[in-house]
Structure formats: structure tokens, C-alpha cells
Amino acid sequence: MRVFIVGAGLMGQGIAIDVARKNDVVLYDVNKQALKNAEKMVGEMTDRAEIEGNISFTHDIKDVKSCDLVIEAVFENLDVKADVLRKIEGLTDAPMCSNTSVICVDDIAERLEYRERFLGVHWMNPPHVMPLVEIVLSKYTNEKIAKFVKSFLKEVGKEVVFCRNQSLVNRFNAAVLTEASRMVSEGVGFEDIDKVWKCHLGILYTLFGPLGNIDYIGLDVVYYASLYLYQRFGDEKFRPSDWLAEKVNNGELGVKTGKGIYKYPDFETAYLERVEKVEKLLRFLGLK
């Protein structure tokens, strides 16, 4: 496949490296100096032999005509992104993707003529290292286009999740950073906040995810703890979710019942595997 990447900044460079391991890449930027800088940086960021000859650099937007997929990675500004995509959509029939991290893809799509072949593909930074890519669908995205892009990303070797209109990663980020900011305002130290994440939550969430982790805590424990906090403080963020209440009512309490968010063979095996994984990660991080 031949992929046209728009924007030769750090994200565009990283995406180009990632994609070029198995595809031909045309890296485009209107700024010739930016392209020269990108060519130098691409060579420094990877073993050039790995992608030798797979990346070409251009300042001619019409080179998109020879490509099968477009990935836009320009400045995080709605007007800038919409403008460059409008210029491209009339030159190609290829699917068009935006690497936006915070802009709602519906807002971009509504400024395009061929919005059904547009969607978001949010690479994490650095894109040639981090495994996750979010496919962010607008309300206009054609299902076949979404499947095509998913297949492409899987071939590249990425872990893929689907989102509607907005990034899941940034929803998590916003929630965590908002709460951390509140703690700072309440007098909690910066180092203490980071230590809670680095020495506990970050470890468990890395290994099991926030939902997988509550299987080990017990969904009933989480439910009643949330209920107490909601009744005590009256804050909607603590109100137990309906799906959580349903699982508790059905006896799906996590590891101890063999089923919660996920299924487990038996409590002892699952618990011992959990301990082993935590200890391995702690040793790798130098925390044990």
C-alpha cells in the first residue's frame, strides 16, 4: 500500500516510520525546510535499513493521487486541518484520516464534501513505539472505510480500539488530570500524587486495565463503596453505574465467582497469576 502522510512534524515523522515498515510512504509538507528536517530526523529515530527506500518526501500535494490512504498530522487546529483535507479530498478517492487528539471528528467531517470516507486515526506519541491507535468514527464514516483502515492498522502491527467522535485516551487523560489538579488545589503534594500512580494505580491499570482490575477487587465491593461515597458526598461521579448494579445482582462479582468483567478458570489460579505479573513488573521498574 502507498500512504500519503500530511505534515512532517514529529508526529508525522513517527507515523511515517511506523507505516513504512510494511508500506510505501509519501511524507508531505508545504514547508521544504520541514521536509529536510524530517528526512534527517527519520534517519536518527530508527535503523534506516529497516525502512530503506520506503519513505519519499514531497512538497507537491498532487502526489496524493498515487496513494491509497491519507493520514493528516498537521497542527492541532480545526481550521488548519479542515483546510488541508478539503484541498486533498478533490485530488483522491482514498480514505482520509486525521491524527487529531482532541478535536471532535464530526466537526472536521462537517467541513468536508466527501465526509463518508473521513475518520480519525489517533496515534500515541511516539507513534513508532507506542502500540495503540484509536480509530475515531464520525457519524458520517462509511463502515467499509472503517474496516479498511482497521485492517491496514492491524497489518502495521497496531492495537486498535474504536471510538465515536472523540478519543477514549483523552477522556481518560482529562478525568485523571482534572482530579489530580483538584488534589493539588486541596494541598496534596505533586510528588505524592505521582507516587500514587507510579507505585500503585499505574501498575495495576497497566497490567489489568481499570475494569479488569475491579474483577480482583470484587464488583460488589466496588458497587457498595461507590454507593457509600455517593450517599456521603452527593457527587455524581461516585454514583454506581446501572451495568455494575446488574452484574452484582446477577452474582457476577469477578475473580471470586469466576466471572465479572471477564471470565476466570478459578480463584487460586487467577490470583497467583496476578501476583506473578505484578512482581515481574515491579522488578522491571526497579521497585522491588
Fold and architecture overview:
It is a single chain. With 288 residues, the protein is α/β, with parallel strands linked by helices. It is built from ten helices and eight strands. The protein has helices at 10-20, 32-45, 78-89, 105-109, 143-156, 168-185, 190-217, 219-233, 242-249, 267-285, and strands at 2-6, 24-28, 55-58, 69-72, 96-98, 118-123, 132-137, 159-164. It has an eight-stranded mixed β-sheet, with helices on both faces. Strand 1, helix 1 (10-20) and strand 2 form a beta-alpha-beta unit. Helix 7 (190-217) runs antiparallel to helix 10 (267-285). The longest helix has 28 residues, at 190-217. The chain is elongated, with a radius of gyration of 23 Å. The relative contact order is 0.08. The model has no long low-confidence stretch (mean pLDDT 95).
List the helices and strands and how they pair.
Layout: E1 2-6, H1 10-20, E2 24-28, H2 32-45, E3 55-58, E4 69-72, H3 78-89, E5 96-98, H4 105-109, E6 118-123, E7 132-137, H5 143-156, E8 159-164, H6 168-185, H7 190-217, H8 219-233, H9 242-249, H10 267-285
Helix count from the secondary structure assignment: 10
Distance between the termini: 46 Å
Q: Unreliable segments (pLDDT under 50, ≥5 consecutive)?
A: none
H and E string: EHEHEEHEHEEHEHHHHH
Strand-pairing-aware structural class:
alpha/beta
Biggest sheet strand line-up = 3-2-1-4-5-6-7-8
Radius of gyration: 23 Å
Biggest sheet details: 8 strands, mixed
Strand content: 5-15%
Q: How many strands in all?
A: 8
